[in-house]
């Protein structure tokens, strides 16, 4: 009888120990869950709410964007000065026309390279005709993409003359895959991004404002 009681006591002790181990395991798992690193879902949430680093975005215009060439320029934070100038010159409707047009689009940094006060002076209402002349000097009739421009340069023995809507000419050259434009004053601008296509033409981004 004593042996039977002792056996029952040992069995009870084993069962109690097992329950305690299960409880400890559950508590440990809960603690681990609280201190575990973020899951993929949590990381995705943080990424979705993180601020956008616009300084890392390239090119200056979105090649996948839709719309005409004015829409493309308007959607680029690096071409706000150009868009303001186009509006001040009354050329928005013209550049939204059927075209096609080829636009060599200076960036904000390109306008900043001009002598102090030049941009502000051109934006004055009294200088509207001068501003229009500068802007249309950056526009060529037709759809002159990079391939067509390269062919013209090769056919010209290393350079090509482009007649602008303003009436003046630009000289295009290619060297090692880099295309440059020289204006009437001898200033040279480099094409930094080519073939941004809109519904009514193509834009090539340049780093210097061209002057007739």
TrEMBL record:
<dbReference type="InterPro" id="IPR050904">
    <property type="entry name" value="Adhesion/Biosynth-related"/>
</dbReference>
<dbReference type="InterPro" id="IPR000782">
    <property type="entry name" value="FAS1_domain"/>
</dbReference>
<keyword id="KW-0732">Signal</keyword>
<feature type="domain" description="FAS1">
    <location>
        <begin position="66"/>
        <end position="210"/>
    </location>
</feature>
<protein>
    <submittedName>
        <fullName>Fasciclin domain-containing protein</fullName>
    </submittedName>
</protein>
<dbReference type="Pfam" id="PF02469">
    <property type="entry name" value="Fasciclin"/>
</dbReference>
<feature type="signal peptide">
    <location>
        <begin position="1"/>
        <end position="20"/>
    </location>
</feature>
<dbReference type="InterPro" id="IPR036378">
    <property type="entry name" value="FAS1_dom_sf"/>
</dbReference>
